[in-house]
Design brief:
By secondary structure, the protein is of the alpha/beta class. It has 21 helices and 15 strands. The chain folds into 2 domains: 207 residues, no CATH class; 355 residues, Alkaline Phosphatase, subunit A.
Length: 579
Amino acid sequence: MKKTIKYLCSLLVLLMVVFAIGKGLFVWYNGDIQAVTFSQLLAILWHGLLLDLRTSAILLLLPALVVTLTKKGLRWILAPYFVLLGLVLGAVVVGDVVMYEFWEFKLSAVHLSYAASPEGTTNSVSMGFLATRALLMFGLMLGFCIPAICLTPSRMEGIGRHWGLILMAILAILPIGISHCYHPGPLFMDHAATNPVYRFATSFGDAHRYRDLPEGDFDVAAAYQTSDAVTDSLLTTARPNVLFVQLESFGGKFVKELGGLPDVAPNLSRLIPEGIFWDHYYSNSFRTDRGTVCAYSGWISYPTVSPMKEVGMHAGLSSLSESFRQAGYQTGFMYAGAMTNMGKHQYLLDMKFESLMDDTYFTREELNSSWGANDGTSAMKMYNTIREIRPDAQWMMVWQTLSSHEPWDVPYHRLTDKKLNAFAYTDQCLGDLVDSLRTLPVWDNLLLVVIPDHGFLYEQTYDTSEFFHSPMLWLGGAVRQPRRMSVLMNQSDIAATLLAQMGLPHDTYPWSRNVLSPDYQPFVYCNYPAGLFYKDATGETLYDLTAQMPIPVDQPADSLRLGKALSILRSSYVQIPHP
């Protein structure tokens, strides 16, 4: 019995050491996000100890069972398992460390949906970046599987070998007591302390967990139901031509008028006094695939589901393009890169966009960036496309930019900070496009709707609502008069609000609200895979779904606002459309 216990405990210690190394790597690699002192690192290791112990015991249940049932050939039987386990440990631990830099939440099942479209990764980072991280993963794998195989004896004699299995089973079912590891303190500390393998494995049950939330007293359906009536007419015509300009990652952080950095978007600042600026507008989600569906399907966002990627959901989604087509409009979507990422091409087809202009719409010479044609090139292409449309045609188009994205390489050098300079370049291209369109006759009947797809984590985290706070500007000759709009609204509300302004129905949009309706209940609901944000006239609430605690953790969440946010979360999963 002693040999069995000693062997399994040595494997247990080895796994605990691997997880401790992972925590050290996590803190060191992500030091720019949150500085951690040595005493805080020790606290992170201590607070994560119980979850590491439980996870290690679960991973050792199979070796314990083999030791119980087999006397000979243990090393050869268990070696393949240790190699496979080493691969899992290397991929999950290193993946958690590396991906946190970009997304600032723990590795989860959500990442797999993006991994299924690898061009998003290869376009964003260099091959050298990928190679060094792969080497780190391989090194961690070897650092576990070689010692584990060497520690495993060829045979295990003696009685009482079942006690090892009993010990691992007891440790595996130890009550955690709480779902997070580090409290109180910054969420970064909790994320660093939380075992990445445990979090990754349990994340596959998140959707089911959200559907099983208590129903609550908040009538979600009524809160999202608004009439076609409007209290304020913003347009000079009911049938403008409409151009959506979807700016990649262009959150309020880069817009001076929203309290952002002062010199990144001077063209947007120049244009704001000329149009209708919505200064309490919030993007729904955190990535392009989610934001695109929110904007052009008027649909809610999900922490763990990408409706764009889930083709089976498309038939149940609303479609702004289809609403315009039924009103006699031609529709089109221009993105100067490949539309294969996250199923964008199929989504746009299913939403009945007639003309899809991707990288094949450009010459080889025009594809001058990692993602496709840079924003200057595609802005000129958009201008020429609009100029060639028949004067009597009615149309709705989308121009999606791409230059304000990793790896931040643009033909523009005004700002020294590479990231800020890329956003400044997109702002310059926006200004050039608007100024060019002014020279065309179409301007008099044109409505430009300028929005970002989502925000960007530049010197901020999800701990603040400012990530979701975004600019929305309506420009063009169809705008009745310049003004600032203080109404609180979501990205998903654009569809119903615009259709109501045009006298078109929006009854097929269950998650989109006409924010200028007399029965509108103002609030915003946003999310990302690890958390929720809810804001209304009483204040705002941020909530971490992984840790199941408010943000910041040392302040209690308003129970009424949190209850409403969780009710919306539950209802959104219950009502996921199926084919």
